[in-house]
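Help needed: design a sequence for this.
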């Protein structure tokens, strides 16, 4: 039995993760930690856990003391907040899966530029593996720290990987237009996320400054074997969950849609959680699942390729992908506890 602890358990990603681990046949949840709700019953915060989880949330200090008693630590925290917990885990030979952003980028300079803080655990940046299983599965095995990818980078990297890996597009031409449900903004109260502010509207945000930009560029640069700079613009749409990423690139040569679909099918032929489909992906068909749906079209008039991908930002974009990484780390069947049917309606 794998003993797991969750720090940041009362955020949306932490709550979804708790539910998956609760139903995982090889996992026992040892503790649920919350900075804001220490001492409160977990099922009083999330009523869906009545009769399922009766534990109270523990404090940050208690979590540090209990890390030595677990096998894997999940951290789902704001930027910069997972570092001390990760240090404690590593010193106790406990594996870390960080659902936040603290180990995704490879240099402290990028954290200073995009996240505005001084990263003080730089040795972990070198050793951590980026936990996108469809790209880094072999590298994930045996690692101590796994950086669970961001939601936008998951959808966008999977959408563009076959193109940049096979040198099919001009890498200077990449544009990503992505849209997310409001749960991606987290559970903390803010005026911008109130129902009246979000409902019946759509808006771009983080234009030219979104923190997922360097993460996507890092992923695609490694696949392409050269530095890639791209344009990424996220949008907030009035739905609870889901991401739709629409990616554009200039083809290096004339190609047909059918050719590219064949390339995508071959690229992901062994990937259970990536579904290359003929129709245009929609978030409703992946909601509540670990699936990423992808399709591609060629605009012959402009010689551009358009790739559309859809994921659930709280699942493949966060919690279920973290469990996918855990399954790989511990040599379990990769689909265990996350092979769930998308929920509809």
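Sure. Designed sequence:
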């Amino acid at each position: 039995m794998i003993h797991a602890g969750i720090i940041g358990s009362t955020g949306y990603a932490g709550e979804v993760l708790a539910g998956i681990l609760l139903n995982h046949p090889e996992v026992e949840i040892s503790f649920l930690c919350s900075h804001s709700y220490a001492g409160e019953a977990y099922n009083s915060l999330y009523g869906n856990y009545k009769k399922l989880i009766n534990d109270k949330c523990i404090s940050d200090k208690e979590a540090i003391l209990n890390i030595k008693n677990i096998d894997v630590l999940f951290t789902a925290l704001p930027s910069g907040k997972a570092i001390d917990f990760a240090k404690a885990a590593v010193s106790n030979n406990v594996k870390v899966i960080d659902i936040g952003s603290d180990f995704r980028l490879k240099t402290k300079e990028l954290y200073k530029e995009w996240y505005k803080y001084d990263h003080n655990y730089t040795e972990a940046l070198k050793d951590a593996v980026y936990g996108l299983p469809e790209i880094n599965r072999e590298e994930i095995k045996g690692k101590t720290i796994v950086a669970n990818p961001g939601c936008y980078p998951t959808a966008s990297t999977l959408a563009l990987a076959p193109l940049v890996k096979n040198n099919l597009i001009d890498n200077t031409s990449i544009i990503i237009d992505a849209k997310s449900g409001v749960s991606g903004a987290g559970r903390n109260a803010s005026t911008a996320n109130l129902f009246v502010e979000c409902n019946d509207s759509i808006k771009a945000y983080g234009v030219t400054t979104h923190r997922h930009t360097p993460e996507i560029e890092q992923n695609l640069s490694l696949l392409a074997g050269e530095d890639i700079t791209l344009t990424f613009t996220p949008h907030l749409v009035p739905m609870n969950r889901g991401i739709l990423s629409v990616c554009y690139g200039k083809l290096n040569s004339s190609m047909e849609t059918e050719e590219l679909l064949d390339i995508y099918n071959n690229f992901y032929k062994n990937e259970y959680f990536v579904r290359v489909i003929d129709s245009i992906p929609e978030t409703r068909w992946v909601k509540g699942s670990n699936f990423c749906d992808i399709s591609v079209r060629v605009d012959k008039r402009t010689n551009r390729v358009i790739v559309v991908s859809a994921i659930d930002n709280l699942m493949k974009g966060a919690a279920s992908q973290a469990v996918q990484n855990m399954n790989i780390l511990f040599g379990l069947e990769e689909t265990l506890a996350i092979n769930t049917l998308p929920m509809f309606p």
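The mean pLDDT is 97.
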